Amino acid sequence: MDAILRLIRTAINYGFDYYILLSGTDYPIRPNSSLYKKLSMGGEYIGINNGFSFYKPEDRIKYYYFDGFDRRNKKSLKTVFFILLERTMRLYFQKKSYPFKQIYYGPTWWALSHDCLLYVKDQIDNNKNYIRFYQTSWCPDESFLQTIIGNSHFFSKCKTNLTYTDWSSDRYAPASPALINQNHIELFKKQIEFNGAFGTYMPFFARKFDDSCANILELIEKELRN
User: Are 155 and 47 within 8 A, CB to CB?
Assistant: First the structure.
């Protein structure tokens, strides 16, 4: 989360209309003109729901977590030690109060207006306890901005996010989404709107891609973006 906050603080100094957060495994699937048209309509493009879900439970922010180790590497002695320590601490410690009455969650990736990000920055600058609260949470990037925006007037302007992710693959779910393949390209040709956990949306980006997807990226450029 610290890296995202540093990016926000630097980016808003440029005074752009919108700022988009992506990962290194994302790629556009529509012509640039499609994105310009979408953003010209205004609004905040971020997946945001109130409360918690099965895959994003309250435990992630209710209890204390450590950082600095690979949580998915169950064979690592360091990982085993810290996970056991976290579980032990749960018996005695939990956070007594939340930074807002309403907690919100959603995907990390978003496209937010300058005014919205400026509001987020002001809230952070004036509430150091908010950062300290999320510093000991797990996956804070899936609740940090959503909770600030959800408790503000920007909530009514939210229109879901712009990134398509396929969680249906048994091989990858629930730890990681499926890689984009030829079947997805055919799907994107036929379908513009999709229904997701955060409402109906028209994705401009998709994820995930890795080094094995070079031919898929070529097909996207040829068949979807041109």
Answer: no
Q: Do residues 66 and 82 lie in contact, with contact meaning Cβ atoms separated by under 8 Å?
A: yes
DSSP-derived pairing of the beta strands 18-21 and 110-113: antiparallel
Q: Using CA atoms, how far apart are residues 55 and 3, in angstroms rounded to an integer?
A: 23
User: Tens digits of per-residue pLDDT, 89-143?
Assistant: 999 989 878 888 899 999 999 999 999 999 999 999 999 889 999 999 999 999 9
User: With bands split at pLDDT 50, 70 and 90, how would you rate the model's confidence at 172?
Assistant: very low
- Cβ distance 178 to 135 under 8 Å? no
Contact assessment for residue 140 and residue 63, using Cβ atoms and an 8 Å cutoff: no
CB 218 within 8 A of CB 225: no
Q: Are strands 194-196 and 199-201 parallel, antiparallel or unpaired?
A: antiparallel
Q: And the tokens for 154?
A: 């920007």
> What residue type is assigned to position 49 of the chain?
N
What residues does each domain of the chain span?
A: 2-225
- Sorted by sequence, the CB contacts under 8 Å of residue 99 that are 6+ apart come out as 127, 129, 130, 133, 134, 147
- 104 SS3 class: strand
DSSP state of 51: S
Single out the residue of 100, 113, 131, 129 nearest to residue 5, CA to CA: 131
d(CA 146, CA 107): 9
Pairing state between β 194-196 and 205-207: unpaired
Q: Whole-angstrom Cα distance, residue 161 to residue 47?
A: 5
